[in-house]
């Protein structure tokens, strides 16, 4: 399978409405009136939005759920607004445990531009339902504190605000909550009201952990304008064993290639558990129902082939990073595990792949025995010599025949690959 076989973004025609497809894909965890939403989305095009706060220089896999949901709604004919929160990003929505560190306005402005570029990659800006990017700093910056309190704040009741999950969790913690973060839900409500007034926006999507913030806008529009607006909360993606999804050794899987390489992303999806892979195909790819059901059959009948995981890794990595980067990641994966030529890989992809393995920086001429110990492939020099004498060590694909062999860094970018046995690999960055 090659990168050219990825599914083109499309809605599945076997569903009566886009609502039915979203439900089948497991994307509706909570929502306003479901019957009304189904009818609304089956009718003439509506304007909808999703917000992304620049609290980091990149979006991550949790945001990818929202981006792909936005794209599905756009493919069904609806008109997306991608909101990058230049003002809400200066505050940050309340976390369950502690206050966020406030970033400088300059940092937030820089991150706004980065996130805007990422959001733009997933939406179509041509045609009758072309996407539009908006920044909530445009309408919050001109507001005085008095105007904000008189025109917006008066519509919120403190008792209701205290009941929001994120707020109540913080109130019951040692950290408490500042008025700044307590006010976040008012700002998000203002966003929805402003987008309704400017563009007729009638739907907001977001993660279910944002439900209190989503409904603050729904309630505000109803109270101020007398209009029924809607919200969809997608489920928080977790693994079947209950662990948090999207974390790799404590690090988020970012959409920025400099923060998470295409190789690392490809490997992340390739390592998906059998119990999770079908749900991931539904949420993160544009494969249709028939194809996904076939992969479900293959997982049950031939799990050792990992066909579903390979297709998932191909689809998502291509969606995020493009076909060329994905093909390079696949080539690197195969070459590292003995199915390709290491010397044919480009230096950047090879280096990214080696950083995902146990690795060490060594000087040219370092004995292989020492390199085996420094990378952790063996626990001692004597164990290294024994592995070499038994013919179980290779360097850059060639068997090491002597414990006097040294590292040269002959692969692209001045690196080397050590292997002990069939599966234990390590990278060497040679100076």
What proportion of the residues form beta strands (DSSP E)? 5-15%
Helix share of residues? 40-55%
* Alpha-beta classification: alpha/beta
Strand order of the largest sheet: 1-6-5-2-3-4
Question: How would you sum up the global shape?
Answer: elongated
How would a crystallographer describe the biggest sheet? 6 strands, mixed
Number of helices in the DSSP assignment: 19
CATH architectural designation of the largest domain: 3-Layer(aba) Sandwich
CATH class annotation of the largest domain: Alpha Beta
How many structural domains does the protein architecture include? Answer: 3
Low-confidence stretches: none
Roughly what is the average pLDDT, rounded to an integer? 93
* Number of E-type strands: 13
Rg result = 25 Å
The CATH superfamily of the largest domain turns out to be: HUPs
State the end-to-end distance. 37 Å
- Which fold name is given in CATH as the topology of the largest domain? Rossmann fold
What does this protein look like?
It is an enzyme of class 6 (ligase). This is Tyrosine--tRNA ligase. A motif ('HIGH' region) lies at residues 54-63. A motif ('KMSKS' region) lies at residues 244-248. The protein has three domains: 3-236, HUPs (Rossmann fold), CATH 3.40.50.620; 238-346, Tyrosyl-Transfer RNA Synthetase, CATH 1.10.240.10; 357-431, Roll (Structural Genomics Hypothetical 15.5 Kd Protein In mrcA-pckA Intergenic Region, Chain A). It has 19 helices and 13 strands. The chain has helices at 18-24, 34-42, 61-75, 105-120, 137-140, 145-151, 158-162, 165-171, 179-182, 184-199, 211-225, 262-270, 274-284, 289-301, 307-321, 323-336, 347-355, 368-374, 381-389, and strands at residues 30-31, 47-52, 79-84, 132-135, 201-207, 230-234, 247-248, 251-252, 359-362, 393-395, 398-399, 415-420, 424-430. The strands form three sheets. It has a six-stranded mixed β-sheet, sandwiched between helices. A five-stranded mixed β-sheet has the order 9-13-12-10-11, sandwiched between helices. A two-stranded antiparallel ribbon has the order 7-8. A hairpin with a 2-residue loop joins strand 10 and strand 11 (398-399). The chain starts with 17 loop residues before the first helix and ends with a strand. 42% of the residues are buried. The mean pLDDT is 93.
């Amino acid at each position: 399978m090659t990168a050219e076989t990825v599914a083109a973004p499309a809605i599945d025609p076997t569903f009566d409405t886009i609502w039915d497809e979203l439900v089948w894909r497991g994307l509706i965890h909570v929502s306003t009136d479901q019957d009304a939403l189904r009818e609304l989305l089956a009718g003439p095009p509506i304007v909808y939005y999703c917000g992304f706060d620049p609290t980091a220089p990149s979006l991550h896999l949790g945001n990818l759920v929202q981006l792909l949901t936005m794209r599905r709604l756009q493919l069904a004919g609806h008109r997306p607004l991608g909101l990058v929160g230049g003002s809400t990003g200066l505050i940050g929505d309340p976390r369950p445990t502690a206050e966020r560190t406030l970033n400088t306005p300059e940092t937030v402005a820089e991150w706004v531009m980065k996130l805007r570029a990422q959001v733009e990659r997933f939406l179509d800006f041509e045609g009758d339902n072309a996407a539009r990017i908006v920044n909530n700093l445009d309408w919050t910056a001109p507001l005085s504190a008095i105007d904000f309190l008189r025109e917006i704040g008066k519509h919120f009741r403190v008792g209701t605000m205290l009941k929001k999950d994120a707020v109540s969790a913080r109130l019951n913690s040692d950290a408490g909550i500042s008025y700044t973060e307590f006010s976040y839900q008012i700002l998000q409500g203002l966003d929805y009201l402003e987008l309704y007034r400017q563009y007729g926006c009638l739907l907001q999507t977001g993660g279910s952990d944002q439900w209190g913030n989503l409904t603050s806008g729904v309630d505000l529009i109803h109270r101020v304008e007398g209009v029924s607006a809607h919200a969809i909360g997608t489920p928080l993606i977790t693994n079947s064993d209950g662990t948090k999804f999207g974390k790799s050794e404590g690090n988020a899987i970012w959409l920025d290639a400099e923060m998470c390489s295409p190789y690392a992303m490809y490997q992340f999806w390739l390592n998906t558990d059998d119990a999770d892979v079908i749900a991931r195909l539904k949420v993160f790819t544009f494969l249709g129902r028939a194809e996904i059901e076939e992969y479900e059959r293959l997982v049950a009948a031939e799990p050792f082939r990992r066909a579903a995981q390979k297709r998932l890794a191909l689809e998502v990595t291509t969606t995020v990073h493009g076909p060329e980067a994905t093909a390079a990641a696949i080539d690197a994966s195969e070459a590292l595990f003995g199915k390709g030529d290491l010397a044919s890989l480009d230096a950047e992809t090879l280096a990214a792949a080696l950083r995902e393995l146990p690795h060490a920086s060594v000087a040219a001429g370092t004995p292989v025995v020492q390199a085996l110990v420094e990378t952790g492939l063996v626990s001692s020099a004597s164990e290294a010599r024994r592995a070499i004498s038994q013919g179980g060590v290779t360097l850059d694909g060639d068997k090491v025949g002597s414990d006097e062999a040294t590292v040269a860094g002959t692969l692209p970018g001045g690196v080397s690959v050590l292997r002990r046995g069939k599966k234990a690999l390590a990278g060497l960055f040679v100076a």
